[in-house]
Amino acid sequence: MSIQKIRNFCIIAHIDHGKSTLADRFLELTKTIPPREMREQVLDQMDLERERGITIKLQPVRMSWQGYELNLIDTPGHVDFTYEVSRSLAAVEGAILLVDATQGVQAQTVANLYLALGQNLIIIPVINKIDLPNADVEKTKTEICRLLGCGKDEILLVSAKTGAGIDKVLAEVIKKIPPPETSDGKTLRALIFDSNFDEYRGVIAEVKIVEGSIKAGEKVKFLSTNKTTEVLEVGYFSPKLKKLDLLQSGEIGYIVTGLKEIQSCRVGDTITKMEDKAKLLPGYKEVKPMVFAGFFCKEGHEYQQLREAMEKLKLNDAAVSFEPENSPALGFGFRCGFLGLLHLEII
After folding, report:
1. Each residue's pLDDT tens digit in the chain (347 positions)?
2. Coiled-coil intervals in this record (predicted)?
3. Superfamily for 189-273?
């Protein structure tokens, strides 16, 4: 697909303002997921997310609508998962700022907006839950205008629950958010914004192709670790993994690396081809942990298993930090750092 027809965007909002429900309506409208597979908060794929009713991990998905390729990244709202939001914002060109009509602008609305403005993203303001009897649309509009400096006529009104106004939001995404910037160079540069580990296929890197293209069978290297590997598969999220022959410039997708050493694939690293002389893309700032806890094994011989588990966790959640610790009473373990109490509780 032509790069002019690609739109990369995410949804940012305070907790419980309806991000995942809005994403559900987008998936229904674009017929990305068959009706029989549709369920509430379909992008919240972890059991813990469904149990608590919150988004913990960023989740990309590709939709096709009116001849355009729309790459959406659903983000968490809790302050403990702000790092997930910042990683999402680096992979997109625009953001939907969603505000609950019954609560108005809240703390994380402002915090996430400043993160988006820091990345020079185009902001589309949207007021949700207009169907509720206690919705105060005018007051919420005034708050958003004061925050963004936009006109009241620029703010879209939707109900993610009933589906009212959803098509207008996607039309606005196509109209206002620019296509990804790219150079005409053939050099591959892909930014890793997330990754996870598959027992059979190794590390799967979630990437945005900044320039160039990549297909299965090509030899690639990771610039910050100098690790080389052969690509086993490329594709996109639908939201399940869908295999493709080729990932091109501007697209968001995944690369199956086959790597078994988890440390070789870091979030924020740049992937390039073996023969290319590419420069490292700006990655992400290291986050400072705020809450610490000691993790120890029940049985001393399980220390190596705990270490492997911590490394896999670090691959999937780059905000976690850990270092070896030794206690006279508890034996060998790890001192782990988290961004907040909820982050610790989730782990």
Report:
1. 788 999 999 888 887 888 888 888 898 899 988 777 766 655 555 555 455 555 556 778 899 999 999 998 877 655 555 555 666 777 889 999 999 999 999 888 888 888 888 889 999 999 999 999 999 999 999 999 999 988 898 999 999 888 889 999 999 999 999 998 876 667 888 888 888 888 888 889 889 998 888 999 999 998 888 888 999 999 998 878 899 999 988 899 999 998 887 777 777 888 989 887 777 777 656 667 778 888 888 777 778 888 888 877 776 666 777 888 887 878 788 888 887 777 676 76
2. none
3. Translation factors (2.40.30.10)
Q: Which CATH number fits domain 291-346: 3.30.70.870, 3.40.440.10, 3.60.20.10, 3.90.1150.10?
A: 3.30.70.870
What HEC string does the chain produce?
CCHHHEEEEEEEECCCCCHHHHHHHHHHHCCCCCHHHCCCCCCCCCHHHHHHCCCCCCEEEEEEECCEEEEEEECCCCHHHHHHHHHHHCCCCEEEEEEECCCCCCHHHHHHHHHHHHCCCEEEEEEECCCCCCCCHHHHHHHHHHHHCCCHHHCEECECCCCECHHHHHHHHHHHCCCCCCCCCCCCEEEEEEEEEECCCEEEEEEEEEECEEECCCEEEECCCCEEEECCEEEEECCCEEEECEEECCCEEEEECCCCCHHHCCCCCEEEECCCCCCCCCCCCCCCCCEEEEEECCCHHHHHHHHHHHHHHHHHCCCCEEEEEEECCCEEEEEEEECCHHHHHHC
